[in-house]
Structure formats: C-alpha cells, structure tokens
Write a structure and sequence with these properties.
Blueprint: H1 3-11, H2 24-29, E1 40-44, H3 51-57, E2 61-66, H4 69-78, E3 84-87, E4 92-96, E5 99-103, E6 117-122, H5 131-144, E7 150-157, H6 172-179, E8 183-192, H7 198-202, E9 209-217
Parallel strand pairs: 1-2, 1-6, 2-5, 6-7
Antiparallel strand pairs: 3-4, 4-5, 7-9, 8-9
C-alpha cells in the first residue's frame, strides 16, 4: 500500500473511516491513562479527526501527523481555525489553538518530534495498514516515543478473508507480537459490534469485534 492510495482516497472523498462525532471509546476509556491536563497527545495518521478537538478540550496539547494536505486543510477549515504554517525539510507544520499537525510521512518522524509526547491515541492508524506495514509502523513508533508513553489503541478483529481492508483485521495476538517486547499490554475491552455496523454486514462479515488496549512503554 503506497502513499498514493491514501492521497487518492482523500482527493476522491472516499473517507468512510472518518467519524463525524467523537469516538465513544475515547470518551469512555481515556481516563484509564490518568494523564495530566497539559500533557501532549500524539495522534498518528490523524486525518481530520474530531477526536483531536475532544483531546484539546481535556486540556491536552495535541500533535497529529497526516500525509494528505487536503485532510489537514479540511480539519482546520471545518473547525473555524486559520492555522499558522511553518515549512521544514520533511513536514509542513500547521498549528492553531494548541493543536499542531505535521503534514508529511509518518515514517519521517524522529525522536525530537515526539520528545514532549506523553500519550498516543491510535484509532485509525494501525488498522489502516496491511500486515507488512504494521510491523514497520509499530517498530518505528516505539523507537521514537519517550519512555513510559501510554498508547490507547483501538483495533478491529474479523475474518480477514471475508472483507479486504482497510480497515484491516488486527487480532489481540498480533498486538501482542507487535508490542510485547517494548510495552506492557492491557486489554481494556473486547466488544462484539457487528450488529451496530450494518455497512460491514453488507460487505459480508460474519463477525466483528473492536478491541481497546492500553499499552505502556517500558
């Protein structure tokens, strides 16, 4: 899966993964992190997610990274912001009201970019990637985060043969393989959600779970 795939989806407005409301699991489980209000939260592959607004409302500084300039522009425009822009070699930084989004490639991020990060919110990042990219993604993320960073991770689990991704199926076992060497893993919830997702039923799924994990770096 190449960069052009996601750039074309945004250009064609094929963004079924975008949620118009704050994710209910974010609201329900964020308190498990016990973060100070002024902590910085990193949102990888953030798109134009309204979850960033909710995190800002909790008092957090928010840092996103997003490949599509259209998505970044839409986030600020749709929420009434006129962002300040700073261009560097790898990224264009857009920021307003405590929310910063780096427009560019996640894999170009370095430790300095996330030096102040205390937590990561991953609802639509890991599940957006095919298996061969998930390993690279997790390895890179864990390599640039500060020690003791917490990750609230939300994944889908379903029979992958019944539906092509994205979103891709990511089992609890795969989460363990990807993260156990560098993090403590807690499964906060495992929910059967097929009945609440008719669009996935229409695509032929016989089972759909959402798993919510809290990972803490050693």
């Amino acid at each position: 899966m190449k960069k052009d795939f996601w750039l074309e989806r945004w250009a064609r407005k094929e963004i079924g993964f975008h949620q118009d409301e704050t994710n209910p699991y974010l609201r329900q489980y964020w308190h498990e992190l016990h973060l100070a209000r002024d902590s910085e939260v990193f949102v990888p592959l953030c798109g134009k997610s309204r979850d960033m607004l909710w995190l800002r409302e909790q008092g957090h500084a928010v840092l996103g990274v997003e490949l599509s300039a259209l998505a970044v522009q839409a986030f600020f425009n749709e929420n009434g912001y006129t962002p300040h822009r700073v261009t560097s070699k790898k990224f264009e930084l857009c920021k307003a009201d405590g929310i910063r989004i780096l427009c560019g490639d996640f894999f170009d991020l370095r430790k300095d970019d996330l030096a102040k990060t205390s937590a990561v919110y991953d609802r639509a990042s890991l599940v957006a990637l095919p298996p061969e990219m998930r390993e690279r993604y997790a390895r890179h993320l864990l390599g640039i985060l500060p020690p003791a960073t917490q990750i609230l991770l939300i994944t889908f689990d379903y029979p992958q043969a019944e539906m092509p991704g994205p979103p891709f199926a990511v089992t609890a076992g795969e989460v363990a393989v990807l993260y156990r060497e560098r993090t403590e893993i807690r499964l906060l919830a495992q929910l059967d959600v097929l009945a609440q997702n008719p669009r996935f039923q229409e695509r032929g799924l016989s089972r759909l779970q959402e798993n919510i994990f809290l990972l803490t770096l050693h």
